[in-house]
Amino acid sequence: MQGLKELLEKESKRINEIKRTVDGRLKNAPDGTLRITTTKNQYQYIHCKQEQYKQEQYKQEQYKQEQCGQVQCTETSNNQKFKLSYIKKENLSLAKQLAQKSYDQKIKKLVDRREKQLERLTKEYSDDEIVAIYNNLNHKRKELVIPVEPTYEQLLAQWKSVPYVGRDFKDVKTEIYTKKGERVRSKSEKILADMFYDMGVEYKYECPLHLKGYGIVYPDFTFLSRKTYEEIYWEHDGRMDDPEYAEKAIRKIDHYTRNEIIPGQRLIITYESANYALNTYVAEKFIKEYLL
């Protein structure tokens, strides 16, 4: 699965951060555990502290109430003595600390186990491990083999081979061409197209797309994702200071979303106005995050 390696690494980082948090809290946790009982619909918090002892010195003891509001008693089990005492209301912070300790101990037990599992899996796993078996074959052997999954290069070649008819340029007076030799409508589109070209990202320019409830749109650029093998679309809205243009752009973006093409997932959007040019730094970040 493409992208799983990155997710495993992120999860490992999250688990390690949780572990550091609970380890730090457990260092300062009070001794003992918390028991919660009810008497006449009233909750009572009991501090249970464990003490070592010689079994022959003690007999099984039962709870014994010494005075109202405070109980001191002992339990014995497996060569250990447990001293029990009620926690008064004014010392409720102790109950909170003991409850937190119990919770943190359970979390620690889980994350310790997960840390080892993730460490082993992350070390062994590679997103391209299945594809790598095919890619490492001799070229003559490749001709005889049908891979269990097509490689990205095979899917990309098939995707590129599908013909399409983009928008015409009958109303465009300027002629702007990219390094790839394609004609585009604006200097900003040329900048973006040349960035894709220089970074080795294949694209289709103004390939038609049908959005249900809206009609045919022509995304500025369409890509085939290396991670998901789905199409990703890039819209550059270049006149966002024009109210009419901005309204149309917003309406179109809403319809992308209604068609499950979500900004930040399968839709990349860049903006521009008369006073704010295309930010190439931001564009490069988008390319590295979504297209490489």
Describe, in plain words, how this protein is organized in 3D.
The chain is an alpha+beta fold and 292 residues long. The chain has two domains: 27-122, no CATH class; 163-291, Trna Endonuclease, Chain: A, domain 1, CATH 3.40.1350. Helices cover 40% and strands 22% of the residues. The protein contains eight helices and 13 strands. It has helices at residues 4-27, 92-124, 129-135, 139-142, 152-161, 187-198, 243-258, 280-291, and strands spanning 33-39, 42-52, 65-67, 70-77, 80-86, 176-177, 183-184, 204-205, 209-211, 215-217, 221-224, 231-237, 267-271. Strands 1-2-5-4-3 form a five-stranded antiparallel sheet. It has a four-stranded mixed sheet with strand order 8-11-12-13, with helices on both faces. Strands 6-7 form a two-stranded antiparallel ribbon. Strand 11 and strand 12 (231-237) form a beta hairpin. Helix 1 runs antiparallel to helix 2 and helix 6 (187-198) crosses helix 8 (280-291). The longest helix has 33 residues, at 92-124. The chain starts with a helix and ends with a helix. The model is unreliable at 53-71 (pLDDT under 50).
